[in-house]
Amino acid sequence: MSATTDLTEPAVSPAEPAAADVTRRRVDLGRFRELSLVPAILVLGLIGFIVSPAFLTSDNLIGVLQQSTELSLLVLATTFILISGRMDLSLESTIGVAPVIAVWLVLPTSGGRFNGLGLLPEWTAVPLCLLVGALIGAVNGFLILKLRLNGFIVTLGALTMLRGLQVALSEGQSIVELPSSFTYLGKASWLGMPAAIWVCGLLFAIGGSALAWLRHGRALYAIGGNSEAARTAGIRVDRIVWIVLIAGSVLAAFAGILYSGHYGSISATQGSGWIFQVFAATVIGGVSLNGGKGSVFGALTGVLTLQLVVNVMTLAGVPPLWNQFLNGAIIIVALIISRFASGEKQE
Amino acid sequence: MADTATTPPTGPGTPAPVAEATGISKRFGATVALRDARIIVAPGESHALVGRNGAGKSTLVSILTGLQQPDTGTLRFSGEPAPDFGDIDAWRSRVACVYQRSTVIGDLTVAENLFLNRQSAGAVQPIRWRQLRRRAEELLAEYGVAVNPAKRAKELTVEQRQFVEIARALSFGARFIILDEPTAKLDARGIDRLFEKLRDLQRQGVAFLFISHHLQEVYDLCSTVTVYRDAAHILTAPVAELGHQALVEAMTGESASKVTATIGERLAPRSDSAELLAIDGLTLPGVCEDISLSVGSGEVVGLAGATASGNVQVGEAIAGLHRAKDGRITVGARTVRTGSVPSALAAGVGLVPEDRHLQGLVNNRSVAENATLTVTAQLGPFGTVLPARTKAFAGRMIRDLDIKTPGAATPVSALSGGNQQKVVVARALATDPHVLVAIRPTNGVDVKSKEFLLGRIRQVADDGKAALIVSDELDDLKVCDRVVVMFHGRVVAEFDHGWKDEDLVAAIEGVSGEAAPVTTFPASAVPASSGADEHGR
Where are the transmembrane segments (chain A) (predicted)? Predict the structure, then answer.
């Protein structure tokens, strides 16, 4: 073996140590890349501190976190899906339709403002809701991966269809009589913090670790980066993408449970229009729309940035009518910042 | 990994062939891709598989690597039947393939690419990154590949990337490796190093199936050659017993005398011709300095150079792809504004770009659309493009360049490589350019198309225009009246027609006469911008 080394070494090795140093430095920078929004968050904190004494109170900060929970779960789902090179727009409808279907199946047939079918006991509401999510993901996956339909349009269709299903089932009304098991997680408080925050934190930790240290997590990067190469490396591309789509929809259904519990009702427009925010948060957090790049932590900083901006603006007394404009502006500004912080072109 | 790779290559018993395929047939719909094909590769042998585009080589490769199932036929590895279809790990321990298209994932590190999908022992076991990097270092050192495993794969040169792919293939324990046109994107120096490595591995008992369009490489590297034509096996013979001519004949199915005839026949260079293209003191930052060159009407000039020499960039600059820091480019009497493609087009420059997939073709659009992309202004009044005129124009181009296509409306991706290249050339010729710049015009093209394309470029010059062939392939340069050689951004030599191969190669490689060989900056160490383009997206 050593003979082979000798033969090629002289040609390449002189350049190699220097090159190695450069890469090591670049890799370190690469590690900071996902922190590129952290300074922005700190600046936002500073501005918040200046504009209002109410900003730096635990009540306010916990409130921001609580409001981030549902959005952040969709962002977590989208991160996984985008890294594996796919898109799922229907997540924003799943967050509404899955709770409605679950509740519709368990609520009694008469007596309330909203009458269900009463088919199953009330405690099954949560598992049912997650099951509906899994089903939606599975159907999307079937259409995209087995029938080879265009994923963007399939999930766009699913978005509209599921929203319509929710409106039809709930007759366009908010559902306020929810089983107590269903609202528990959104309402409960553990160790002085809303349970939803703990659960989301845990899910992000699990998701981030899976992407960083598990083979199947790394497989998502391979699939998103070059799916043909992933296939030749023995990765079961379709199966893994399908699982990711299902997991994403389950997360969205779970976000629906937290949201319903948090506000005590399932609103008819629950999640409507969120997908833009979700994509914005994910992309400014450094996840590539083309797949193969990004991290869960980066995506989390993306959500927090967006939520902090809203919070700081509210505290600063910016008229709510300007919120939408500023939200859009912030997304573009954040994109510009992360473009130059990372030094990479966004395609 | 290490133990499997160091086991003796063959047992003491009978040396069963590492791969043996017999009676393989495969159809895709109405197309027969392979008809009763066969191939036998002995242990430690380097076996060449040659054939024109569409001969069935790629299909055979995907069957040998277990990516596709043959309709009929049997496949045996080292005497044992092939593993079940879909058992990818079992396939990979028997046969490995370095594909024409890169199968490394750019955003992952070299270490992770090497151990993709086996980074940890079990699916739920966390990956230990430090250990993974160490294993990668060991693996690369074992095969003498000087690459930092912490590097991202997209930062590697083409050559390093191939070494990484070969090391990965060997790490599965395979003793049989298929190389699908490994030299297509390497410069001469890189090819030498690749061959050196392959010979080393061969001494360790690894067998190769080597697929290439460059017959010279087959003679340089291989001991046995198998020829496929029209989806069927034609012959298998020791390379030493098969002459150049016989090999070309086997590939094309007709006498090769025509090949030499067209390339051999030449008009006397016209020294008194009018100057059509003049480059004066061209300087491209970081690429070349003070390049001057002129091409007269009726002349074909070659611009030779290795990958990092800057010859490709000079060619592209003429077509307006790069902005110059200094210098002038004139076509006829017009000065071209450097960095402006419209200006170059208006002055009458036609470009055959280096990489037809990246710069040439819009893959899923039709042959007609691709061929007329540069001349849409002529296809109808007020910015409209009339389908009838497009069709007529494309029909003319298809006949002119003898493009084998079912019709003008066929998507260009459905054509074979040689015909795709013809479409690219057609597009360059569509504007009826005064100066045709052809960069590696025969890259990845079969023998017959090659001959045709070079003849067509010659014809452009014979019509009173000028042609510049930018290439490092001797076959391309042989049709030129003059060859100008660049080395590291400078013109170092000029040869009149009738040069000797070794002189030209020496000039391209920067080895001039008796002087000490210039080896301080091997091509791979220079961050060649063209190299970066090749494996960019």
Answer: 35-55, 61-83, 95-111, 123-145, 152-169, 189-214, 240-259, 271-289, 296-318, 324-342
Q: Do A225 and B107 touch (CB under 8 A)?
A: yes
Residues of the domain holding A320: 36-342
Task: Provide long-range contacts, Cβ within 8 A and 24+ apart, for B450-458.
Answer: B450/B418, B450/B475, B451/B258, B451/B259, B451/B262, B451/B263, B452/B401, B452/B402, B452/B422, B453/B421, B453/B422, B453/B425, B454/B262, B454/B263, B454/B479, B455/B262, B455/B479, B456/B401, B456/B425, B456/B429, B457/B300, B457/B425, B458/B300
Q: Which residues pair with B282 in a beta bridge?
A: B291
Is there a domain that residue B342 lies in?
yes
Q: In this predicted complex, what is the ipTM?
A: 0.76
Please check whether residues B197 and B284 belong to one and the same domain. no
Q: Does A23 touch chain B (CB under 8 A)?
A: yes
Report the domain count for chain B.
2
Q: What is the pLDDT of residue B51?
A: 80
pLDDT at B524 over 60: no
Within-domain flag for A43: yes
Question: What average pLDDT does this structure show over B488-513?
Answer: 76
The pTM assigned to this predicted structure is 0.72
**How confident is the model over B93-137, as pLDDT tens digits?**
888 888 777 788 888 899 999 998 888 888 788 888 899 999 999
User: Do residues B245 and B300 both lie within one domain?
Assistant: no
Select the residue from A29, A218, A239, A344 to test the B interface by mutation, using most B Cβ atoms within 10 A: A218
Q: Residues B256, B354: one domain?
A: no
Best to test chain B binding among A6, A227, A232 (most B CBs inside 10 Å) = A232
A28 in a structural domain: no
Residue-wise pLDDT for B337-346, tens only, equals 888 888 888 8
Quote the domain boundaries for residue B201: 16-104+172-261
CATH of the domain at B85: 3.40.50.300
Residue B58 neighbours by CB distance under 10 Å: 18
Given a cut of 60, whether residue B388 has pLDDT beyond it is yes
Q: Does B2 map to a domain?
A: no
> Do B180 and B300 share a structural domain?
no
Q: What is the mean pLDDT of chain B?
A: 80
